[in-house]
Structure formats: structure tokens, C-alpha cells
Write a structure and sequence with these properties.
- The chain has helices at about 15-30, 40-50; strands at about 60-65, 65-75, 75-80, 85, 90-95, 95-100.
- The chain is of the alpha+beta class.
- The protein has a domain at about 40-100: SH3 type barrels (Roll), CATH 2.30.30.520.
- The strands form 2 sheets. A 3-stranded antiparallel sheet has the order 2-1-6. Strands 3-4-5 form a 3-stranded antiparallel sheet, with no helix packed on it.
- A hairpin with a 2-residue loop joins strand 1 (about 60-65) and strand 2 (about 65-75).
- The chain is elongated, with a radius of gyration of 20 Å.
Length: about 110
């Protein structure tokens, strides 16, 4: 009778703490992607949303260290001087922004 050993078959690869850390780091590095290029239409859309922002909920996609992240909520600060915006106590530089969508009739999360 052939039985599956489940997670037991992977234990030899993580027998040392250093190996586990190294394997996790390898998986993280392997998952990294390049930032998508910003086209002029997208930049104009982002600028229009930020220029006319008045406290509505938004969905912000940003790029950091090879990965894209999504934050949803209300902007608490838009700083043209520092070139950052703040959402959910997270400060995001303008150059890291990939996309912004505002909540509206045709907007679904």
C-alpha cells in the first residue's frame, strides 16, 4: 500500500534554521516582477483623480520591492512637496503608484 507522507517528505529540506530562511528568501526573490510601464493615459487618469479628490474611497495599487500591493480606503494626506500620499497610515511615493480607482457606480471590489 502506497501512502502519502504529507509534509514529512519536505522536512529534510528545512532541517536547519538557516535553510528555512534561505528557502523563504529564494521564494521571495523568485516572485519579484518588474514594474509595469506607466502610459500617458494612465498618468492623466491618476492626476485627475488626485486633483479632484474630496474624501471618497479609493483603491490604490502601488509597486514596492518587486511586488504590487493594493490599499483600499481614504487618503489622509497628499503632499506635493514630498511627492507622497498617505493611505491607511502608509506613505507611498508618487513614482510607486501603478493605478488608482475611485469608488463609483461601475466600481466593484
Amino acid at each position: 500500500m502506497n501512502q502519502d507522507r504529507g509534509m514529512m517528505k519536505y522536512i529534510p529540506y528545512k532541517s536547519l534554521v538557516e535553510q528555512g530562511d534561505y528557502l523563504a528568501k529564494m521564494a521571495y526573490e523568485k516572485g519579484k516582477r518588474e514594474k509595469r510601464p506607466m502610459f500617458e493615459e494612465k498618468a492623466e487618469k491618476i492626476n485627475a483623480i488626485l486633483s479632484s479628490y474630496h474624501g471618497q474611497d479609493i483603491k490604490l495599487t502601488y509597486y514596492h520591492d518587486g511586488y504590487e500591493y493594493v490599499e483600499e480606503g481614504k487618503l489622509t494626506c497628499i503632499s506635493a512637496f514630498l511627492k507622497t500620499l498617505e493611505i491607511n497610515e502608509l506613505e507611498i511615493p508618487f513614482k510607486a503608484i501603478v493605478d488608482i480607482e475611485e469608488k463609483g457606480e461601475d466600481f466593484y471590489w
